[in-house]
Design goal:
Number of helices: 8
Helix content: 10-25%
Strand order of the largest sheet: 4-11-10-6-7
CATH architecture of the largest domain: Orthogonal Bundle
Strand content: 25-35%
Distance between the termini: 62 Å
CATH class of the largest domain: Mainly Alpha
Shape: globular
Radius of gyration: 27 Å
């Protein structure tokens, strides 16, 4: 009976849409903590910007929300938003408000960074495409194909709508603020420094040495980021890009770090490449995991270091700003799902064998483990903790001290696992 819904529930699975509905019933930190795991916020904001630019009144973006399409993206299970039924895209409503009254949109823009990005996307649409200069080519082109259709009225509407929205934008965000660093040159005794600056809504991203860092926007025109430093003089060049990936401006700062240059005390202590039952993440998923261990006597700041499963891509996944206390652990989930949180990496582990490498912020190798074929729910790592000269198959001991199996069981494991072990399990430490 394959035609029965109860036997094909995956074809009518609305559970993720129910998650969206429940999400928008939340508020405050409960909403903020879940929103980016359930919907693609950036894509929703772009849809709202494009949908509101046209001034239509008969789709989800407008003031009477309906006619929306919601798509669950298989790669990360996040929901995308697309406006539907666009037959009112050139009406006589060129003075629709700057901010749609759609409840979901109103909840999103309570977050300053989201409101700023919406303004940025809307400004980008208006200056690149939704304006008289750009659209006149297309009205002329289609007019030549359909001579009895007056496309000039559409162009007039686009021009009026463009001018109206640009006026409202200017009233909300003011004149363009030059991109700049407001933090002054300084000397610090730490290996990190929070750098602040200003930027207008046309800035999409900021990079340092070609790397995009995580930036916070405490206000519409103010940004800040925590920058990792090396001991000595750090000359940092910040490059601002617009939404078309064009460079807008650059600014520089020099920070001298007096932090003591010490060798890293962090190692890849344990990993599980085929996880079925041994340690679930915060979503209850049994993903692959990698455990780091600080064998030193001081707190280790590891933000800016990298983990990779590709020796040709040492900077594959940047470790977020965090630290590990002495003789303590940090578990990172190798699930290729960075949207689930800061400790979820951009790659998975291969049960058939590969290499895991840990690099410092300058992509200098710190520790590497190469391994062969693995078995389900049996981890691999160092024993004792932090001892890089010995690698063993282990009882999974996520976030706790590594332990070896009982002697009798150990011999059984050796007999079963010796072939993959001989395929090249080894460690390197710098």
């Amino acid at each position: 009976w394959i035609f029965l819904i109860k036997n094909n529930r995956y074809k009518d699975d609305y559970s993720r849409l129910m998650d969206v509905a429940k999400l928008f019933s939340l508020s405050g930190s409960a909403f903020n903590n879940q929103v980016e795991n359930i919907i693609d916020v950036d894509q929703w904001l772009r849809s709202f910007a494009v949908g509101n630019a046209d001034g239509g009144v008969d789709h989800y973006i407008c003031t009477s929300p309906h006619n929306g399409q919601f798509y669950v993206r298989p790669e990360d299970d996040r929901v995308l938003l697309f406006p539907h039924d666009m037959d009112y895209v050139f009406p006589n409503y060129d003075q629709q408000p700057l901010l749609p009254n759609t409840p979901s949109f109103q909840k999103l823009i309570q977050v300053t960074e989201y409101l700023r990005r919406y303004y940025g996307y809307l400004h980008d649409v208006l200056t690149t495409a939704y304006n008289q200069n750009y659209m006149s080519y297309w009205t002329t082109h289609y007019g030549s194909l359909l001579p009895y259709q007056n496309f000039g009225t559409h162009l007039t509407y686009i021009n009026n709508r463009h001018n109206y929205l640009m006026g409202l934008l200017g009233a909300q965000v003011g004149t363009e603020t030059p991109f700049s660093i407001t933090t002054t040159n300084c000397t610090v005794d730490t290996s990190f420094k929070t750098v602040a600056g200003s930027a207008w809504i046309n800035v999409d991203k900021i990079k340092i040495d070609g790397k995009k860092l995580s930036f916070d926007w405490p206000a519409m025109k103010n940004w800040e980021t925590k920058v990792p430093l090396v001991p000595g003089t750090n000359h940092l060049v910040f490059v601002a890009y617009d939404f078309q990936n064009n460079i807008i401006a650059t600014d520089e700062i020099t920070i001298i770090s007096l932090a003591i240059d010490s060798s890293p005390t962090i190692v890849i202590n344990e990993f599980l490449a085929l996880n079925n039952t041994q340690g679930a993440d915060e979503f209850g998923e049994f993903d692959d995991w990698v455990e780091l261990y600080n064998f030193g006597t001081n707190v280790a700041e590891i933000g800016g270091m990298f983990l990779s499963d590709d020796v040709l891509l040492p900077a594959k996944w940047p470790i977020p700003v965090t630290n590990i206390s002495p003789e303590s652990f940090l578990v990172l989930w190798a699930d290729e799902d960075i949207n689930q949180g800061p400790y979820h990496m951009s790659f998975k582990l291969s049960g058939s064998g590969e290499t895991i490498s840990l690099y410092n912020p300058d992509t200098v190798l710190v520790h590497r483990i190469s391994f062969g074929e693995q078995s389900s729910d049996i981890s691999f790592g160092l024993f004792p903790d932090g001892n890089i000269s010995t690698n063993f198959f282990l009882y999974p001991s996520i976030s706790t001290n590594n332990i070896l199996p009982e002697p009798g069981i150990l011999w059984i494991w050796i007999l079963v696992l010796i072939p993959p072990f001989l395929k090249g399990a080894r460690g390197i430490f710098n």
